[in-house]
Design brief:
Elements: H1 10-13, H2 58-68, E1 75-78, H3 81-92, E2 99-102, H4 109-116, E3 120-123, H5 134-140, E4 145-151, H6 163-172, E5 176-180, E6 202-207, E7 220-223, H7 226-235, H8 243-252, H9 256-278, E8 283-286, E9 293-298, H10 301-310, E10 316-317, E11 327-331, H11 335-354
Parallel strand pairs: 2-3, 2-4, 4-5, 5-6
Antiparallel strand pairs: 1-7, 6-7, 8-9, 9-11, 10-11
Keywords: Amino-acid biosynthesis, Aminotransferase, Histidine biosynthesis, Pyridoxal phosphate, Transferase
EC number: 2.6.1.9
Subunit structure: Homodimer.
């Protein structure tokens, strides 16, 4: 049976976490003289912001618990998913000794976090359909391999990973399997968070930056066993989510009807844009997408990227990523923005045909 205690870096097992002023009592008081705050108020918008925020974001976790069907003690909230990624590497990987497995092309912060903590990286490229190859991944695992990162839907390719392969990997991997679902809201597929009770080594990441439209607030989530979440809370900064973010996110989580409306617009526009791409000779391949972006392959990505910039359109050139030669990743924008993009692509085609 998997036990997270066997994977925690030894010195963290006995770590005594920082005890914040708000950790040391329950209930309400009339006079707070415990945290060296400025009791006169705040220059940033009133009295409220002179107080430290809830270090465990209890109000948000209660709403997420109802929304996601996950117990509050199974939820970690971070400053974006990037904080959860960083803390997971820090939690189980000994610098200069342990390693993680990445499946390129994939989200770049897994590699950045590993490098920051001087953790080794084993790379197992996705196949030509951007799917994981179980046998190749299994062959890379050693007793030093502590985390397998899976991104589904994958960034930058946009596709969901095969669920049967993902399940085999979770069951067989002797370490943490982190499934990053930043784009899960744009699909009809169930979240792996619905199966946490089956897999004690599973960590699922989600974010409010994409479908919920709150990238500027920086709030990400990790869902896992209560034991893993307790360790993440133990090593996180005491007040990692500021009061403004907590207030705005809590209010936004009540607007699920508006979320569905936005998702409908984005997915409809995604299909429209992809259909237009498929009619353009300059686009050699349109990859399937379960996200709010589309990966396309063209003859000369660098040239097209520069041309779009001249017309005020910024996309992402992913040509340096494995399996993504001459590929651009294009986010689905508003209908007007998408029209501008498509018009720019047609103009590019016309100019090249004349030349």
């Amino acid at each position: 049976m998997f036990s997270i205690d066997k994977f925690i870096r030894p010195h963290l097992l006995s770590l005594k976490p920082y005890s914040s002023a708000r950790d040391e009592f329950e209930g309400e008081a009339s006079v707070y003289l415990d945290a060296n705050e400025n009791n006169l108020g705040s220059l940033a918008g009133g009295v409220d912001y002179n107080r430290y925020p809830d270090p465990y974001q209890k109000a948000i976790k209660e709403k997420l618990s109802l929304l996601k069907g996950i117990r509050p003690e199974q939820i970690f909230i971070g400053n974006g998913s990037d904080e959860a990624i960083d803390l997971l590497v820090r939690l189980v990987c000994e610098p200069g000794k342990d390693e993680v497995i990445l499946l390129p092309p994939t989200y770049g912060m897994y590699e950045v976090s590993a490098n920051i903590h001087h953790v080794g990286i084993q790379r197992v490229a996705l196949d030509e359909r951007f799917q994981p190859v179980f046998e190749k991944i299994a062959a890379k695992q050693t007793d030093r391999t502590k985390i397998l990162f899976l991104c589904s839907p994958n960034n930058p390719t946009g596709n969901l990973l095969n669920p049967d392969t993902v399940e085999r990997l979770i069951k067989s991997f002797n370490g943490l399997v982190v499934v990053d679902e930043a784009y899960i809201d744009f699909t009809e597929a169930p979240s792996w968070s619905t199966r946490l009770f089956e897999f004690p080594n599973l960590v699922v990441l989600q974010t409010l930056s994409k479908a919920w439209g709150m990238a500027g607030l920086r709030l990400g989530m990790a869902f896992a066993s209560p034991e893993i979440i307790a360790y993440l809370n133990k090593i996180k900064p005491p007040y990692n989510i500021n009061a403004v973010t907590q207030e705005l996110v809590s209010a936004a989580l009540d607007k699920t009807a508006q979320l569905q409306d936005m998702l409908q617009v984005i997915t409809t526009e995604r299909e429209r844009v992809m259909a237009a791409f498929n009619q353009m000779p300059l686009i050699e391949k349109v990859f399937p997408s379960d996200a709010n972006f589309v990966l396309v392959q063209v003859a000369n990505a660098n040239d097209l990227y520069a041309y779009l910039l001249e017309r005020g359109v910024v996309v992402r050139n992913r040509s340096t990523q494995p399996g993504c030669a001459n590929c651009l990743r294009i986010t689905i924008g508003t209908p007007a923005e998408n029209d501008h993009l498509l018009g720019s692509l047609k103009a590019y085609s016309q100019e090249k045909s004349v030349a």
